Amino acid sequence: MNSIFDHLIPRQGSLSLKHDGLQSTFGVSDAQAMWVADMDFSAPSAVSQALQLRAQHPIYGYSMVPESLYEALIDWMRVQHDWEIERDWIVLTPGVVPCLSTVVMALTNEKEGVIVQPPVYFPFLSIADNTGRTTLENPLVLRLDQFDNLRYEIDFDHFELCAKQAKILLLCSPHNPVGRVWHEDELARLLAIAKQHGLLILADEIHADLVYPDAKHLVLGKMDVDQAHVITAVAPSKTFNIPGLGLSALIVPHSPSRKAIELQLSKTGVSVANPFSLVAFEAAYRHGHYWLAGLMDYLQQTRDLVNTYFKQHIPQITVTPAEGTYLLWLDCRKLKLDDQQLQTFFIHQAKLALSPGALFGTGGRGFMRMNIATSQANILMALEKLKAALV
Ligand SMILES: Cc1ncc(COP(=O)(O)O)c(C=O)c1O
After folding, report:
1. According to the 3-state scheme, what is the secondary structure of 22-88?
2. What is the predicted pLDDT for the residue at 1?
């Protein structure tokens, strides 16, 4: 026990969706919660202190966005991602999911194609339907690498066919749930095809800061030299465990696209006036560097511990090697259970609440997504329960 991340505060009773929502989602309350993508760790103390300070002023009216918040994001992108962005490119939005459909509405026309790459974060799958556009699936391909590890790749030939019929790609980078951090050559190839066919890319980079040292996240927007093809969505929410506060940013260098997005936001009356989310956003980006370094050390140890444990004790299930995110994609196909049986096995026999792979669309069947952002003691307990249930 030598890390701040070993010490957890109980979340039960705090209206936590992950913990207190077990009964309504899984029909049980005694399973270990490893589903919703938030962490069991306290946010950086700089964030809590900034929130407490703001709470002391007892008037919680509509807030203005301070210039210092934009500066904090600009500095973060420069230091953490080597990308020099301009103040004018930033459009604040109340969360990444709401802004996905806003961008699609603003920059595409009815019935135009929206490419998604399943298995993928499930809200991506319904954006086209919800906005009167057409979903085009470009499923990821699952291969074995030279060490016999599972590895997801983009099917570029199929992507090019889709690009000819589509207006926008919703790119998940790093990818939830398969854990890939896309390489420079993969991103360059995507971008080249997009440019050739006049396709926009909305890069959801919400997991960009949660990358293990054996990989490197590259911001796609930085590679887009004409600054016309890529819109980037970022947020401190996953990185610093403040997703309930709901504030994110779109980075849109192309001025006509930005104006169209701003117009769309104004039509729906979306605003970012919550005083607490503004304060937390700025404090996290301004003061979070060291906390994040410690978090990634801890998560890396946890990821490695989980990989080793599965190899040694639960060989029936294969962990897809994660290059980023705290979400592990478990290949349970050897158990030969259908969706319902797999869910029943995890919930009722192993007493673990994971996200079912089928939720993530094509290619998700037979997989489960495990959230490892909890203490290593909790992780070991979960692994032991799973091992015992499989005997
Ligand atoms: C890829 C991705 N985008 C967006 C979100 C959610 O973003 P927000 O809470 O800002 O809507 C998640 C949450 O898991 C995610 O994994």
Report:
1. HHHHHCCCCCEECCCCCCCCCCCHHHHHHHHHHHHCCCCCCCCCCHHHHHHHHHHHHHHHCCCCCHH
2. 55
